[in-house]
């Protein structure tokens, strides 16, 4: 059984991500160069079975993030401890700080970034860290699906799945083609993932399922070897149109971009829009089109190819 090391401090830098990428619903993810930096320290002193956490947050979402034991980072640290066999009575006091660069409530994986940062920190604070596949299974399980979580943990372009209905979560990481330029278009409004998911139908027509399988397979080829196929490969029938009523401005921007030949998709559950451009010239043209729509901020974050970066300091 592992145990947290008193006095150990870790720093974790973790990227945000875009999930689905059109047809890859709950499976495909892309790590983006928007990052949170998290510091976690195991504090000395007996807890008497009632551990506490001192939490400081700055940057994106700071005004609405819970503190103390209700904080998602803290819960994820403790989930890693629990996965390693640490009993509740042996959970330590923690000091946690986070400087957030990943926008919240915009469909760019802010909750997954927090889960990955917390779990990766918790693993690194143990005298026997979790095995990489165990950490991956943990963060995907905490999120409920592997798209954002795998991308934030592993970096690059990820394909995730579950071995069975109750089996382990798995993912593979591949490098996107160097010519692929992601543009992230962020609106000034938020949309909760729960609300977006509630709009999805319980069943889909067989034709739509078959279309999605083909386009998701094509998307792997487009992202890694044939960026010229990105527009066709990002066509979706499962979730974007079904959620359009909750984000009409996103739907309008999406339609304009795709009508002009750009591979635009809803980023995760929205309301941000991601444009997968096959060249820097195409990215410039897409930016010009987005500027014609009011209320959008455009980022060119690049692809984060490192994933969660962990540094350990021992007192």
Report a brief summary of the structure:
The chain is α+β, with helices and mostly antiparallel strands and 315 residues long.
Describe it.
With 315 residues, the protein is an alpha+beta fold. It folds into two domains: 8-175 and 303-314, Ribosomal Protein S5, domain 2 (2-Layer Sandwich), CATH 3.30.230; 181-299, GHMP kinase, C-terminal domain (Alpha-Beta Plaits). 33% of the residues lie in helices and 27% in strands. The protein is built from ten helices and eleven strands. A hairpin with a 6-residue loop joins strand 5 and strand 6. The longest helix is centred in the last third of the chain and has 19 residues, at 206-224. The protein is globular, with a radius of gyration of 20 Å. The model has no long low-confidence stretch (mean pLDDT 95). Pfam families: GHMP_kinases_C, GHMP_kinases_N. InterPro entries: GHMP_kinase_C_dom, GHMP_kinase_C_sf, GHMP_kinase_N_dom, Homoserine_kinase, Ribosomal_Su5_D2-typ_SF, Ribsml_uS5_D2-typ_fold_subgr. One of its GO terms (molecular function) is homoserine kinase activity.
């Amino acid at each position: 059984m592992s145990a947290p090391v008193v006095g150990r401090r870790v720093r974790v830098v973790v990227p945000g991500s875009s999930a689905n990428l059109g047809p890859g619903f709950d499976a495909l993810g892309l790590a983006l160069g928007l990052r949170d930096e998290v510091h976690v320290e195991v504090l000395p002193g007996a807890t008497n079975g009632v551990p506490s956490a001192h939490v400081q947050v700055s940057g994106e979402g700071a005004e609405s993030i819970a503190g103390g034991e209700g904080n998602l980072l803290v819960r994820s640290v403790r989930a890693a401890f629990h996965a390693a066999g640490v009993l509740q009575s042996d959970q330590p006091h923690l000091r946690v700080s986070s400087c957030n660069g990943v926008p919240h409530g915009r469909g760019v994986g802010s909750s997954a970034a927090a889960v990955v940062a917390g779990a990766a920190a918790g693993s690194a604070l143990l005298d026997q860290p979790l095995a990489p596949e165990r950490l991956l299974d943990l963060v995907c399980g905490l999120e409920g699906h592997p798209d954002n979580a795998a991308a934030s943990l592993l970096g690059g372009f990820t394909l995730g799945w579950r071995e069975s209905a109750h089996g382990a979560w798995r993912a593979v990481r591949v490098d996107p083609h160097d010519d692929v330029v992601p543009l992230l278009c962020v609106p000034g409004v938020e949309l909760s993932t729960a609300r977006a998911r509630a709009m999805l139908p319980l069943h889909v027509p067989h034709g739509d399922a078959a279309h999605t399988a083909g386009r998701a397979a094509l998307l792997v080829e487009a992202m890694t070897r044939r960026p010229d196929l990105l527009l066709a490969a990002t066509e979706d029938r499962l979730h974007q149109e079904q959620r359009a009523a909750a984000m009409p401005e996103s739907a309008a921007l999406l339609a304009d971009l795709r009508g002009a030949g750009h591979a635009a998709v809803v980023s995760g559950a929205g309301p941000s829009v991601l444009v997968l451009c096959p060249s820097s010239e195409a990215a410039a043209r897409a930016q010009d089109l987005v500027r014609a729509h009011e209320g959008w901020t455009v980022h060119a974050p690049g692809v984060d190819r490192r994933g969660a970066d962990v540094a350990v300091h021992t007192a």
